[in-house]
Amino acid sequence: MFSGLLIVLLPLFLGYLVRVRSIQLQNLINRAVNGSVYLILLFMGISLAGLENLTSQLSRLGGNALLLFSITTLFNLAALWWLSRRLTLKAGSSPVVKNAPTSKLAAMRGSLLLVVVVAGGVIAGLLLGPYLGERLFNSADLLAEWVLYLLLALIGCQLRNSGMPLRQILLNRMGLAIAVTLAISSLLAGLAAAPLLSLSWNEGLAMASGFGWYSLSAILIGDQLGPLMGGVAFFNDLTRELLAFILIPLVIHRHTALAIGYGGATSMDFTLPVIQQHGGVACVPIAVVSGFILSLLSPPLILFFLSLSG
């Protein structure tokens, strides 16, 4: 039952064993991770093009993604609002931040580019499918699986060389509390959404375990449950990030924990500049710790829950 879990976690573990001291090599690994994500999402788009009755399937994908996103957001906001009222955490005022995004659209550009990549994959699949047939879709699935193994190894290496010692993580109680609250409320949402999505309880938990890490959740879910559910996971987690860009400036001064936590795993990277810009530098270590913990939890949780079906 756990053979698939072991096969996918092994490259993550092996990558974590590699210590990289060279800044240039670390930058190269970061670029390789980004390139791998784009490549896999392109293959996912091609696989989506191979679905029968594509129009109705895409309609189903959108409906399921909206349903899962709505339930997850409701649970997350309620739990994080409750936590915000109990934490003595306040954002700073009038922060000056270098290299912060100048607009929400600029901050969202990277997220929207991923949607373009998936759409490009669908178009490529529709154009090439009549000529290459099933070979195209089978090759896309196989290549996506091997690039996934490479990506997991690179992610493991990134986590090892992130400069975030375990002691520092465990001592930041606010970051830990935010991460645990977001994780538990997301899993409860996954349980609630599972029957509405015609999924088993463990598949619902897996769908909710992305915590905003849309590139990885789409890949892992799609590999086990097919491109349709991979697309649902992708758009569910991507929409979380897009909403976080809008939500953070609006609520960070009244409900700081909610603003930091809602972005999930992205609070350590993509949404961090927005948190820093509107909440001040005091919010940065809390956001990084919260995002780091959720990034560590997400891959093993998704794979564990999916392995229960085997």
Order of helices and strands: HHHHHHHHHHHHH
What amount of the residues lies in strands? under 5%
Please state the average pLDDT score: 83
Distance linking N and C termini: 5 Å
Record field, number of beta strands: 0
Instruction: Kindly report the CATH topology.
Output: Proton glutamate symport protein
Concise summary:
With 310 residues, this protein is mostly helical. Helices cover 77% and strands 0% of the residues.
What are the key terms here?
77% helix; mainly alpha; 13 helices; Proton glutamate symport protein
Description:
This is Lysine exporter LysO family protein. Keywords: Membrane, Transmembrane, Transmembrane helix. InterPro entries: LysO (IPR005642). GO terms for molecular function: L-lysine efflux transmembrane transporter activity. It is a single chain. The chain has one domain: Proton glutamate symport protein (Orthogonal Bundle). It is globular and about 60 Å long. It is 77% helix and 0% strand. It has 13 helices and no strands. 48% of the residues are buried. It is an all-alpha fold. About 3% of the residues have low confidence. α4 runs antiparallel to α5, α4 packs antiparallel against α10 and α9 packs parallel to α13.
